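Justification of computing resources. Each target in the renewal requires a structure prediction run like the one illustrated here; the chain below, 71 residues long, is used simply to show the kind of job we budget for.
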Amino acid sequence: DDSIHEPACTICFVPLEDGDIVGDLPCRHIFHKTCLKTWCTRKNACPLCNATLATRRRDSQPQDTVSYTHL
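Resulting structure tokens:
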């Protein structure tokens, strides 16, 4: 069965297909972009390897403002 070797989004478990909009992380794991955005609202780590997804930047910004990178 070739479906075992097809890349899939491990958030929704649907195979990734040509034309899908995907988001890739610094750890090089790839997911559907909409799945990844939803995941990031719940947890700031890769669903596969638990690598941190974003970091807070505090340089020259008001204390209440947080900027995230890599998304």
